[in-house]
Amino acid sequence: MKRLLVALLTVAALAALAAEQPPRPSPAHTFALGPTDFLLDGRPFQIISGEMHPARIPPEYWRHRIRMAKAMGCNTIAAYVFWNFHETSEGVFDFSSPWRDLARFVRIAQEEGMWVILRPGPYVCAEWDFGGIPPYLLRDPDIKVRCLDPRYMAAVERYIAHLAPVVRPLMVSRGGPILMVQVENEYGSYGNDRAYLARLRQLWQRNGVSGPFYTADGPTPSMLDAGTLPGAAVGLDSGSSEKDWDLARSIVPGVPVFSSETYPGWLTHWGEPWARPPLDELRAEMAFLLGARKSFNLYVVHGGTNFGFTAGANTGGKGYEPDVTSYDYDAPISEQGRATPKFMALREMIGAARGGGLPPIPDPIPTLAVPEIPMRRVASLWSHLPAPLLAVQPRPFEAFGQDQGLALYRTTLVGRKSGRLQVTDLHDYALVFVDGRLVGTLDRRLGEHSLELPKADRPAPVLDILVEGMGHVNFGQAMIDRKGITDRVTLGGMTLMNWKVFPLPFSADWAMSVADHDEADTRPGVFFAGTFRVDRPADTFIDVTGYTKGMVFVNGHNLGRYWNIGPQFRLYCPAPFLRAGENRVVVFDFHQERALPVRAEASRPAGPLE
Predict the structure, then answer these.
(1) Residue (of 224, 221, 445, 413) closest to 317 by Cα position
(2) 270-291 pLDDT tens trace
(3) pLDDT: is 477 or 604 the higher one?
């Protein structure tokens, strides 16, 4: 009985937390860039910011995560705005549905007594698909991004014109909490067209957002020279020593400098161990920032989750490096919203610097576990192919109006029927079949673009290449990253012609409906489904240990990708995705042939690398 009472009180508290407080008028403030300091109402103000991204957090938890950051000692929330999250299709913008209601997120921060730094892009990086830029732009075969290409800028102007009316009333000068707006992001790591940066600032001003503005770049002479703007505050990614500040002041004098990304954690790619930077290094950097009363933004105080197909990818020294689904980032506030040892250490340091008086840490969101969810094989991808599109040679997803998911490329072999099959270029993972038999896989991550095709039994064998597009590259010079087969396929040096292409965007609704069937196709590419009951929804993690590579859907929500190369074997499923009573989980796996049970676990760690 006591446990039931505690559960009911917890649910009631969560409901109160999620409930909207009535808006109350706020007095307008002034926020200005002094010669060395940020000035709030004319007085020096130290920004102690924690970054989180509303697109990575279920809206029911926005207030909880903001309260967590406040309890750690932050006085400001920094937030990226992902352009491609709000322009849901070309020319169609959404700033009002619950998960895309940016104004509500900002107002919640204000209600909780927090200031806001807005980071609207148009490019943001963030380990988010295509750095926030809409992939539909890649349908133009020679478009250039992050520059004054007229086609790119026409889309940017449309984006800012739709976003500015949301931002204007939330600026500090109008009684809102937004102190500053960032112009682009880390541009000095990419290009050197300061006219482009000036044009972006001008677009905001033309649309009624007068600033202040800031830029953010790595603390090197070339990056700061190319990425800063006269009259804009200088952000350093990161500013970990006094020499970084001195460098910034020498390049852009007369404006405040701050550490716009101080990293308490780091990102993780598939096939790597979880990134866990040492706490001692963070303590040392925070001691410098707090001791010198520097302004800073913790990137990130809470990471959240790359639900669906939103995870991006890098192209560092190892080649293509797709990001895992979790954006836990080893941040002070975990993916599920809990205080970590890092949180407690920072709370102690920031609290001491601010003279104490921090609010209590909010109660954790409840979790649940289901020891075993029986699964059964319910459908084959091969029985649910759409009508094909014809192409003389393969073309990338974007050429067919598709941005994410899978595509099947099919041709009949004429002339050469065996030998070295070369895919130029594969983006990003493929299964290769001849007459329905799997003959191998290709993985861009490993630099695999070719394999040996065995002799076929039939005189006119059918070649199928099932391609998964993973994250569009979000950083660096390889951002024009179309998915699928981007050029051609050759066999023994002969270019293969006359293809049928089956686009498979893999919407969550489609995946759930496909799994209503019962089929027995023996080829890899199988849907598995199961149900589980809960009395009261709570957060959980779907454990797919034993499965190989694919994606998980729960009640029509795409939780994201999994892959047995690790390090992630459990996908976060927040309570708002569940319902009291029966819940349905669907797993699509590229390789798995036999149904295995899955589990719902109360925490994330699982598998040998976690």
Answers:
(1) 445
(2) 999 999 999 999 999 999 999 9
(3) 477
Q: Are residues 62 and 157 in the same domain?
A: yes
CATH code: domain of residue 526: 2.60.120.260
Provide the pLDDT for residue 610: 46
CB atoms within 10 A of CB 118: 23
Instruction: Indicate the number of domains in the chain.
Output: 3
Q: What mean pLDDT is predicted for residues 94-109?
A: 98
Q: Say whether pLDDT at 12 is over 60.
A: no
Q: Of the candidates 474, 497, 520, which is a domain's last residue?
A: 497
Distance, CA of 415 to chain centre: 45
Cα(112)–Cα(62) distance, integer angstroms: 11
Q: Please report, rounded to a whole number, the percentage of residues in the chain having pLDDT higher than 90.
A: 92
Residue 317's pLDDT band (cuts 50, 70, 90): confident
CA distance 531 to 546: 18
Q: Do 116 and 246 fall into the same domain?
A: yes
DSSP 3-state of 604: coil
Q: Write down the residue that tokens 């970054």 correspond to.
A: 51
* 266 token code pair: 């780091």
Q: What positions carry a catalytic annotation?
A: 186, 261
Supply the CATH number for residue 197's domain: 3.20.20.80
CA distance linking residue 100 with residue 28, whole number of Å: 26
Determine the Cα–Cα distance for residues 52 and 537; give it in Å rounded to an integer: 24
Same domain, 470 and 579: no
Query: pLDDT, tens digit, for every residue of 388-442?
Result: 999 999 999 999 999 999 999 999 999 999 999 999 999 999 999 999 999 999 9
| 3-state secondary structure (DSSP) of residue 110 | helix
Note the pLDDT of residue 27. 78
Rounded Cα–Cα distance for residues 382 and 409 (Å): 12
Residue 325 pLDDT level (bands cut at 50, 70, 90): very high
Q: Is residue 591 part of a domain?
A: yes
Structure tokens of 116? 């806001």
Domain hosting residue 121, numbered range: 44-354
Q: In this structure, are residues 359 and 70 in contact, taking their beta carbons and an 8 Å threshold?
A: yes
Residue 189 has pLDDT above 80, yes or no: yes
CB neighbourhood size of 271 (10 A): 17
Of 191, 166, 470, the closest CA to residue 308 belongs to: 470
Decide if 141 is inside a domain. Answer: yes
The CA-based dihedral angle spanning residues 52, 58, 59, 64, taken in that order and rounded to the nearest 10 degrees: -60
Mean pLDDT computed over 57-76: 98
Assess contact for 347 and 486: CB atoms under 8 A.
Answer: no
The confidence score (pLDDT) of residue 567 equals: 97
| Token digits of residue 353 | 């610097």
**Whether 78 contacts 214, CB under 8 Å:** no
One domain for residues 110 and 202: yes
Statement to judge: residues 490 and 519 lie in one domain = no
User: What is the distance, to the nearest Å, from the Cα of residue 122 to the centroid of all Cα atoms in its chain?
Assistant: 15
Task: For residues 290-295, give the mean pLDDT.
Answer: 98
End-to-end CA distance of the chain: 36
Residues 141 and 182 in one domain: yes
Q: How many helices (H) and strands (E) does the chain have?
A: 11, 34
In a domain, 463, yes or no: yes
Q: How far apart are CA 196 and CA 194, in angstroms?
A: 5
Q: Are residues 472 and 530 in the same domain?
A: no
Flag whether 37 is in a domain.
Answer: no
Please identify, among 497, 528, 555, the residue that sits at the C-terminal boundary of a domain: 497
108 near 70, Cβ under 8 Å? Answer: no
